[in-house]
Design the sequence.
């Protein structure tokens, strides 16, 4: 049995940020993830200046490519709207690995199956014992499932289904494009150029909205890919997208029970309009760490529920 003060389950941005802050405060913390790192994570990898600030990333020394955008191109009902912004994109394959290494805590590749509370401690798979337990395992987080799902059932109408592919493609088009409501999609599609010759294209929409019309996200994906070809934005690529589901921010009742916390997608914090989840994952990781360090309240009230105002403001 490995004994530790704090165990974090999930080494995405939420878990690694929480681990980084706890380690800085001199806490004894370990992090478990079912994947070895670096690992693939479906995500457009668009991040805001606030994420850079909260993570104290020095743009000059970040070892991977960090693409910056000074405008987004929105496509709405056939209109092409140029919007001044100040935003970034990263590759999650690199970014998450870098965050985990920077946290500097003991990492265990381990798929958590079973958690139980025994007195004041939590026992994970009869292999790890901790006083504080942080659930950062994303949508299917075992901490959420074990302790929080009864209090915070996932609202069906907040479920987003997505299809996405990130691939080496030296696109001449360097702007980030976003298409809203194409073919009445209850969501949006994106084209996000990355550094080092990578491109990320994807589409996401509300599952319930699609289901009520007898449509699937794949139907919309097919139309979207056709559109990219017609616009000459992606040529001669045989697409092989992967799918993933997650939940937008809901009115969640509990984020902490005794000494168990949920953060990031485990707590369902992605913004309601754009499904931006990296920023909320980072912020909730910092807030949970502060609660453990200072014995203070853990609240996610300060985390933005919407992205669009910040995007528009960032260009000024
Ligand atoms: C297609 C798509 C595009 C997106 N684009 C953007 C975007 O451009 N910008 C943005 O801000 N957000 C975006 N998001 C949302 C964003 O990816 C998530 O909100 C963010 O990754 C949440 O971070 P997290 O650390 O909470 O969870 P995750 O990044 O999902 O990390 C959870 C970790 O937990 C591990 N884990 C899960 N179960 C277990 C287990 N049983 N045992 C051990 N480990 C486990 C997983 O392996 C994983 O590494 C997108 C999401 C999708 C699906």
Sequence:
């Amino acid at each position: 049995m490995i004994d530790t003060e704090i165990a974090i389950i999930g080494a995405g941005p939420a878990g690694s940020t929480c681990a980084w802050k706890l380690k800085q405060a001199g806490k004894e913390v370990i992090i478990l993830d079912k994947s070895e790192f670096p690992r693939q994570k479906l995500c457009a990898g668009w991040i805001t200046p606030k994420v850079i600030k909260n993570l104290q990333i020095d743009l000059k020394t970040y070892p991977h490519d960090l693409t910056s955008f000074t405008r987004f191109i929105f496509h709405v009902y056939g209109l092409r709207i140029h919007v001044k912004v100040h935003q970034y994109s990263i590759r999650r394959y690199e970014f998450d690995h870098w965050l985990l290494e920077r946290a500097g805590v003991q990492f265990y590749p381990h798929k958590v199956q079973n958690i139980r509370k025994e007195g004041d401690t939590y026992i994970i798979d009869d292999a790890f014992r901790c006083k504080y337990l942080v659930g950062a395992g994303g949508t299917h987080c075992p901490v959420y499932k074990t302790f929080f799902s009864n209090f915070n059932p996932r609202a069906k109408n907040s479920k987003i289904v997505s299809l996405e592919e990130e691939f080496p493609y030296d696109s001449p088009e360097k702007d980030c494009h976003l298409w809203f409501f194409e073919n009445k999609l209850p969501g949006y599609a994106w084209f996000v150029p990355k550094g080092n010759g990578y491109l990320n294209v994807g589409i996401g929409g509300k599952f319930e909205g699609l289901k009520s019309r007898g449509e699937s996200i794949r139907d919309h994906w097919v139309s979207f890919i056709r559109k990219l070809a017609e616009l000459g934005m992606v040529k001669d690529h045989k697409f092989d997208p992967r799918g993933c589901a997650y939940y937008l921010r809901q009115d969640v009742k509990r984020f902490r029970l005794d000494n168990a916390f949920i953060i990031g997608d485990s707590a369902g914090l992605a913004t309601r309009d754009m499904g931006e989840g990296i920023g909320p994952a980072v912020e909730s990781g910092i807030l949970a760490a502060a609660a453990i360090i200072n014995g203070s309240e853990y609240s996610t009230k300060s985390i933005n529920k919407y992205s669009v105002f910040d995007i528009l403001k960032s260009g000024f």
Remarks:
- Residues 278-294 form the longest helix (17 residues).
